[in-house]
Design goal:
Shape: globular
Distance between the termini: 31 Å
Largest sheet: 6 strands, antiparallel
Order of helices and strands: HEEHHHEEEEEEHEEHHHEEHHHHHHHHH
Helix content: 40-55%
Number of domains: 3
Bound molecules: adenosine monophosphate, magnesium ion
């Protein structure tokens, strides 16, 4: 294994002077050096071959004990110094102070084919930021992170990636539903990859501690390496930075709404400053379209992070980032202007995205979108199946035929009540009328819609099936799902069995519809 190491973060930013791996407040630093924990019997479970190539490795490299050891934390790669980042964050709306990489350890950064990657282990042991927890991760949550990161990437959504998933051979105690039923689970480590793992919280902690110089260094560093298109200077540079982060955040959330992804814990420490989907915890995918839905049982009461709230939370989080950057700008008006623009920008992007989902490329149909959002919630309707099947509707279809084409998306299998049927009939009348003013013919439109409306997503129960099998030592389904989700927009007739509604058994099953932050 050979890498072109280029450790920008540790080179440009101040390190914690203490090398002691003890839990504490780390002041005046962006990171602490740590050594990953040795594992008792590491075993590779799955590798993303595509990412191997991205970093210049072959399958042969990946089969060496060196690879296994480096990417499970048993061996520190020569001339590198693993480290954990210091960040804070607002959790569920409240300032939580210092959080930091409590169980993520950055190994090194590399340059390959003009791309920059930071490689980071998740679940490789404690750090000064581990607070009261153990720094470890279980197989269940690691399978979810590994599969979903890659699935999101192939859906065309900005995300951190996952190179490898390994078992540690050690057991980890977890109380999955926080109800006093702790049990041992298999420990695992994922190696994540991203240009950088910097979060909103990295800036917030420095501002909260009035650590002006380091805040400036971190912001300059981030702009220099990850926003090279920003060429302005002085205060304008930091304003332009906020504009860019805002735009990337909007883009990411519009994608989430497009595919029905609910992040579940949009705390500011889980917001990438590069606009990447990061920290796959109690996330979930909409089955029946429901703007009120959240998979996260920890958030069941207030539903702060429910599907329909994600756009607002994106803005709320940007306010917190703007607050942190205030220190470098010292004027509220320009910051406020940038934040005020969020809603309009979001709406424009969202409407454009929904028009693409509907296959309406010319007409101005925002009413149709709002009416659909109402109608689709009258009865439980599968989001993915509905939109994929919508593409099969033709300009000549009657409303009756149109309804029969999307009927498969209804969870209730009996006939629709007359009210609901009437609502759908009304909506389809308008929809078919709108289709008739489109230039593309039916076939062309369907093909185009199919590039926006995925056929396959990582439904909550699919990940759970893969986890159940993996816990029994069988990793076939992980690989099957990984391959399936590499081409989420393709028909893949041989995989039709995954283009079905959530099975009844999964409706209230832990891990499928109910998830907690325990991981
Ligand atoms: P999360 O809600 O998973 O984003 O985590 C919030 C904070 O808790 C972050 O600082 C994590 O690093 C930390 N954390 C979560 N799980 C663990 C764990 N098992 N051990 C140590 N720190 C953890
Ligand atoms: Mg996190």
């Amino acid at each position: 294994m050979n890498f072109k190491i280029d450790n920008t973060f540790t080179r440009d930013l101040p390190a914690d002077k203490s090398l002691e791996n003890s839990r504490r407040q780390v002041i005046n630093a962006c990171f602490s050096y740590v050594t990953p924990k040795k594992t008792s019997k590491p075993e590779l479970v799955h590798i993303s071959e595509e990412l191997l190539k991205e970093i210049g490795l072959t399958k042969k490299d990946a089969s060496t004990s060196k690879f296994l050891n480096v990417f499970t934390g048993n061996e520190v790669f020569e001339n590198t110094h693993p480290y954990a980042m210091c960040y804070g964050g607002h959790q569920f709306g409240n300032w939580a102070g210092q959080l930091g990489d409590g169980r993520a350890i950055n190994l090194f950064e590399i340059e390959h084919n003009n791309k920059h990657w930071a490689l980071q282990l998740k679940g490789a042991g404690e750090t000064p930021y581990s607070r009261t927890a153990d720094g470890l991760a279980v197989l269940r949550s690691s399978v979810r992170e590994h599969l979903c990161s890659e699935a999101m990437h192939h859906l065309g959504i900005p995300t951190t990636r996952s190179l490898s998933l390994s078992l540690t051979g050690d057991d980890v105690l977890r109380d999955v539903m926080y109800n006093g039923n702790a049990a041992y689970e298999k420990g695992a480590v994922v190696c994540r990859m991203a240009p950088s793992f910097i979060r909103f919280g990295n800036f917030e902690i420095l501002a909260a501690r009035q650590n002006h110089d380091t805040l400036k260094s971190l912001t300059d560093y981030t702009i220099k390496h990850f926003y090279p298109e920003i060429t302005s200077e002085g205060k304008q540079k930091y304003l332009d930075f906020l504009i860019e982060v805002r735009n990337r955040t909007i883009e990411m959330i519009v994608h989430w709404q497009r595919v029905g992804f609910v992040h579940g814990v949009m705390n500011t420490d889980n917001m990438s400053v590069l606009g990447l989907t990061i920290d796959y915890g109690p996330y979930g995918w909409l089955e029946g379209y429901d703007s009120e839905w959240t998979p996260n049982t920890t958030d069941a009461q207030h539903k702060r992070y429910k599907f329909g709230n994600q756009p607002y939370i994106g803005m709320w989080n940007l306010y917190k980032l703007a607050n942190a950057l205030y220190d470098l700008i010292e004027e509220t008006d320009p910051l406020q202007t940038i934040l005020n623009e969020y809603e309009n920008l979001y709406s424009t992007k969202y409407n454009q995205m929904m028009k693409n989902k509907l296959g309406l490329y010319t007409a101005n149909n925002t009413n149709l979108i709002a009416e659909l959002e109402q109608t689709i919630q009258l009865t439980e309707t599968d989001y993915t199946i509905f939109f994929r099947n919508l593409g099969t509707i033709t300009k000549k279809d009657s409303t009756e035929i149109a309804i029969s084409k999307i009927k498969n998306a209804f969870y209730e299998t009996t006939e629709l009540t007359s009210n609901i049927k009437e609502a759908w009939t009304l909506w389809f009348q308008k929809y078919i009328e709108a289709l008739n003013s489109e230039k593309l013919n039916d076939k062309e439109r369907q093909l185009k819609m199919n590039t926006t409306n995925p056929k396959y997503v990582l439904r909550n129960y699919m990940a759970q099936l893969a986890i159940d099998e993996a816990n029994n030592g069988n990793y076939d389904l992980i690989d099957q799902l990984y391959l399936l989700l590499k081409k989420p927009y393709d028909e893949q007739p041989e995989n039709e069995k995954w283009f079905t509604k959530r099975p009844e058994w999964a409706k209230h099953k832990i891990g499928c519809s109910m998830l907690s932050c325990s991981s």
